[in-house]
Each structure stands twice: as C-alpha cells, then as structure tokens.
Amino acid sequence: MIRINRETDYATAILGLMATEREDRFSAAWLAEQRGLPQAIVSKILKQLVRAEVLASHRGSRGGYSLARPAEEISLADVLRAIEGPIALTDCIEGGGAACQYSPYCEVSSNWARINEAFYQALEGVSIKDMSQPLPPEHPSLRGIDIRVKTAVS
C-alpha cells in the first residue's frame, strides 16, 4: 500500500489551517493547540517546511511562521517533497537503473516512470487552499482523473 507518512498528513492539516485563518503569522504552540498535536512534532514539521521554502520564519515580537506564497500556489506535491523527499513510487524512479540489480532485464520501469508522473501531476493539481476546504467533485484536478490515469499508463 502506498501511504503518505503521518507528518505529511499533519503538515497538510497545519497548512490548511494557516490558509483559512486571517492571521498572517502563526506560532508553533498555537498551531499545535488548534490541531491537537504535540508542539514538538509541529515545530519539527514547521522547520522542514521552512527549509523547503513552503513557509517563512519570522523573528521578533511579531515572529512566527507564515506561508511563503499564496495558499493556491502551494501544491500537495510541494508538501510531500518537503516532508518525505522526492516523489518516487519505486526505487528505479528515484535512483534510475543503478537502484536495482535487475534493471538490465526490466521491461516495466518505463511504465513505472509514467505512473509516477501521473501521480506527481495529480498532487501538483491540488493546492493547500483546496485542502483547506472540502474539494468539490467538479474541481479541475478531479475531472477526468480516471481518463488521465488510464492515458498515463497506456
């Protein structure tokens, strides 16, 4: 089963909250309290998001964290890369032929590359703004998803 890790899920929830609140700067303590998460985990996630330039960190009396760009410009792919690293469904996607001892005999790795790209494009098509509210069935990223996936793997 392909799963995002718990911290990516938390990061998405934290960013969704930041996208809907009127405040422009947020403390780790406030975000932790609002999401019912331990502050240590929230602080760790916030630092990872700052390193990936998804968030900006501010010092001083008006310090805290803010979105580095508008919520509609931050995709789920950005969040996943920030917390988990590069998006790669198989080792051969991330490391190329050298990642697998069977690559000289493999006939499916190019198909995995196409599937990985379809997965990546789906994540790019959903923003943090989208995640801050229920995604309506008519959202462009959901329209024709079955056709796009079928096309990507054929």
Task: Give structural notes.
The protein has about 150 residues and is mainly alpha-helical. It has a single domain, classed as Arc Repressor Mutant, subunit A (Orthogonal Bundle). It is about 50% helix and about 5% strand. The protein has eight helices and two strands; from the N terminus they run αααββααααα. The protein has helices at about 5-20, 30-35, 40-50, 75-85, 90-95, 110-125, 130, 145-154, and strands spanning about 55-60, 65. The protein has a two-stranded antiparallel ribbon with strand order 1-2. Strand 1 (about 55-60) and strand 2 (about 65) form a beta hairpin. Helix 1 crosses helix 3 (about 40-50), helix 1 packs across helix 4 (about 75-85) and helix 6 runs antiparallel to helix 8 (about 145-154). The longest helix is centred in the last third of the chain and has 16 residues, at about 110-125.
Any descriptors?
8 helices, two-stranded antiparallel sheet, 154 residues, mainly alpha, Arc Repressor Mutant, subunit A, 5% strand
